[in-house]
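Example for tutorial group B:
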């Protein structure tokens, strides 16, 4: 080997692997104690009739010049397929409790135009209804999670929707579905009874909601092979009463209880903080507040444990993500925000938390898939850009249906700024469905690289191979002018001559590697 090549190789090893530094963080993976399977639904998505999340962002209609398949844009669907979207929740959100499914079936030109009272007061053309939604999830190869209308709907309306979607009989509703172009029943994997019943879904108490839920659930009849798993709409970060009451009252009648938690940099709904151009105090406050997800899961799980110690019920975080002030000049009702490296780090921190609680957390749905809040994709007319959050989802694909493994971190320093203090490194490991061992590492510190010494008892680690996502600035993001400003880069590390392997995790970075 010539001396220049040797020098380059030595530099690479110094950058990404080699012997332990004295102050290294020690990370141990216990492969002998496998934990729960990380349900692929933890990587679920959410698409609401809100802003340009569905209309423009995904649905352009079959006559559009933008290349599409039966109205759904090919570029967006193609990109979403690459992150293996396991399921999509639809049609809301708050919108679900004002949505009447009969408005969205039959010839599109004859469907009624409604007002989207929750989101900007704009016209809702009902162009995307039941058949269009199922076409989308079938194009994606994903499951459908349909959210029923409890707020302004009724047991009858939900019961009829279930019959329309799932009946194989010759009933009038099943025949109407056939007339509208679908012979076989749709596969409704999940169906929720209402959304945020404590707020936009009707301002109810958990006790009142659980009585209504029991009534509605009784009438959600479907042939056994088509019967969806039914979900109860639960609480938020303010209290655990919903998890407590619903796990007691609905134990035998529900697949799981939902839970919503949004990360707001300032912690205040008035003046949430900007999506770009923020200072370090809002980087750390965002990290610190998103890490509270773990405490929320613990408290809600503990409340559920009282009534369901066998953990038959799932805690389903079917709305989560960052929520910033809307971008200047955009409709405030459209919840459009930019998406930066900070969002990717937030996503990865939450994935690591969800993995650690995979015994209870069986589904999560980030809000939302396209153009709304912490989105995967941003579009403008025929243009599309992939966000850092998209890349976090792409890097974590090997964790879908993997078996979680215990990870212990020692000597993990705190990263401190202003009033906040958080652990520098977050990690998660799992045995993938392909048999390989995967490790995810997140460095929350935007200023300092971290040295992580890897230890897997009973296994000699030779190398790590995967990807890293990082950038020079905390708010680096992709734009239509610079669509590749931030994207994953290959990452490798090799054991040193002493057989030990340490990973240099760059500042403000997410790494996912296969361990060999
Ligand atoms: O995701 C935006 C909104 O946030 C949803 O419609 C609602 O459920 C929540 O409050």
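The residue assignment follows.
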């Amino acid at each position: 080997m010539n001396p220049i090549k040797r020098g380059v190789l030595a530099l690479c090893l110094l950058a990404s692997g080699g012997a332990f530094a004295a102050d290294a963080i020690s990370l141990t993976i216990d492969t002998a104690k496998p934990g729960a399977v990380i349900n692929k639904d933890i990587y679920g998505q959410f698409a609401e009739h809100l802003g340009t999340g569905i209309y423009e962002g995904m649905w352009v209609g079959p006559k559009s010049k933008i290349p599409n398949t039966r109205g759904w844009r090919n570029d967006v669907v193609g990109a979403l397929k690459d992150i293996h979207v396991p399921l999509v929740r639809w049609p809301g959100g708050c919108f679900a409790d004002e949505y009447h499914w009969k408005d969205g079936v039959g010839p599109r030109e004859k469907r009624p135009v409604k007002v989207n009272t929750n989101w900007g007061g704009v016209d809702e053309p009902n162009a995307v209804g039941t058949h269009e939604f199922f076409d989308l999830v079938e194009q994606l190869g994903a499951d459908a999670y349909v959210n029923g209308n409890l707020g302004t709907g009724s047991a009858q309306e939900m019961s009829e929707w279930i019959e329309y979607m799932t009946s194989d009989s010759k009933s009038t509703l099943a025949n109407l579905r056939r007339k509208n172009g679908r012979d076989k029943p749709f596969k409704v994997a999940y169906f929720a009874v209402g959304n945020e019943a404590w707020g936009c879904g009707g301002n109810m108490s958990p006790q009142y909601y659980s009585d209504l839920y029991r009534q509605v659930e009784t009438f959600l009849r479907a042939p056994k092979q088509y019967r969806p798993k039914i979900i109860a709409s639960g609480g938020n970060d303010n209290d655990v009463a919903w998890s407590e009451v619903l796990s007691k009252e609905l134990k035998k009648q529900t697949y799981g209880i939902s839970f919503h938690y949004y990360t707001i940099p300032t912690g205040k709904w008035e003046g949430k903080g900007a999506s770009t151009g923020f200072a370090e105090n809002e980087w750390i406050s965002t990290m610190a507040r998103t890490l509270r997800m773990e405490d929320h899961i613990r408290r809600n799980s503990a409340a559920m444990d009282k009534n369901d110690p066998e953990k038959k019920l799932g805690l389903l975080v079917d709305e989560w993500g960052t929520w910033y002030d809307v971008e200047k000049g955009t409709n405030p009702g459209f919840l459009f925000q930019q998406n930066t490296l900070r969002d990717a780090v937030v996503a990865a921190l939450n994935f690591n938390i969800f993995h650690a609680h995979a015994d209870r957390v069986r589904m999560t749905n980030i809000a939302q898939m396209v153009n709304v809040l912490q989105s995967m994709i941003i579009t403008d007319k025929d243009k599309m850009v992939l966000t850092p959050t998209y890349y976090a989802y792409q890097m974590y694909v090997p964790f879908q249906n993997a078996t979680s493994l215990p990870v212990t971190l020692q000597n993990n320093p705190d990263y401190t700024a202003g009033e906040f203090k958080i652990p520098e490194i977050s990690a998660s490991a799992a045995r993938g469905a392909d048999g390989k061992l995967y490790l995810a590492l997140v460095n929350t510190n935007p200023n300092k690289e971290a040295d992580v010494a890897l230890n897997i008892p009973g296994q000699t680690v030779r190398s790590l191979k995967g990807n890293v996502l990082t950038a020079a600035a905390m708010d680096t993001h992709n734009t239509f002018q610079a669509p590749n400003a931030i994207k994953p880069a290959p990452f490798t590390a090799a054991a040193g001559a002493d057989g030990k392997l340490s990973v240099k995790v760059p500042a403000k970075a997410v790494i996912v590697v296969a361990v060999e």
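The CA atoms of residues 84 and 397 lie 7 Å apart. Compare this with the pattern of hydrophobic and polar residues in the output above.
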